Amino acid sequence: MFKILIDDSELSEISEIARRHLSFFEWSLAGMTLLQKLEKEHPKGKLFYKSENPAKQTFVLANNPNILPDDGKDYDMVVSSTPFLPWNLLQRVASLVEESLSFQKDWKKFRQKYKVKSGKYDIVGKDKNLYLHPSAVVYPQVVFDTSKGPIFIEENVRITPFSFLEGPLYVGNGTFLDNAKVGGGSLIGSECRLGGEIENSIVLDFTNKHHEGFLGHSFVGQWVNLGALATTSDLKNNYGIIKLRLKKEEVNTGTIKFGSWIGSFSKIAIGSMLNTGTVIDIGCNLVEDRISGYRSPFTWKSSEDTTYRLFDFIQDTKKIMARRRRNMSEPEEQYLNSIHQSITGFIT
Q1: How far is CA 186 from CA 29, 91, 151, 168, 322, in A?
Q2: Which of 92, 140, 171, 264 could bond 222 through an S-S bridge, CB–CB 3.0 to 4.6 Å?
């Protein structure tokens, strides 16, 4: 029996941020999670999970019944979170898109059915590198540029006029791109609502950035809302290496291009400017004109203000999820409660 351990037990501050809500192996990247890839690559293997957080382990095992808790014995393969830190992932977008194509054979069928429809939309580069699901709706005056990599448009995607999409790019099920300029090297999740300018960024499922504003070299979690004209900076004015200054640690990204890391369920007000290397943890509601550094989980309004009250956060989140026909599961609510309790010290 081939045994694989997903090791989510690293105790550094940066790994704690990475595992808030969904862990690295549950992120849908180019239509597949790491967990799904492991199951396809090792269909007869056994998956195990290790975490130092009991509430997190309960949540993960409830979400993934095929995973077993760590048994403390030897493993044939151990997978850690380091390759999945956002700045590392952003450099691997092209390979992630290619992996998705190799695993999802149906894309070949879509490609064979595809015909360029003159007068509808335009393609710069090779036609064969555009994979467009038959159910996708693409309006006139849309440009696909495949000269730097393939573009995958999943089922039920809608793309309005004057959008420009550059590969390598993946756009997930049911996402709406409205007058969007999406530069190469981006992964867009399912049921997102996106507009404005996006470059070399990863946006997970159910996130909104429907209006103008720039999102560059950034990683955005699930259920995030970026208000109109909210903008990230992804390059220091001295072209220096970007370091993330967290609560207790300083993390060197090793790159001069990194924007923001925005945690799941966070909301950013209209007109907010996010400095290079900003890290916003889970469940924040920020209304500052300029945001920089690190924001702790459930920060309310600004770093000087109070914590987002748990009851309000849960009720607001349930309403937001209901708009996408989703319900918060009991294990998920319990896990969010545990994160809030660990930050505030209050038991609810």
Answers
A1: 10, 10, 10, 7, 27
A2: 264
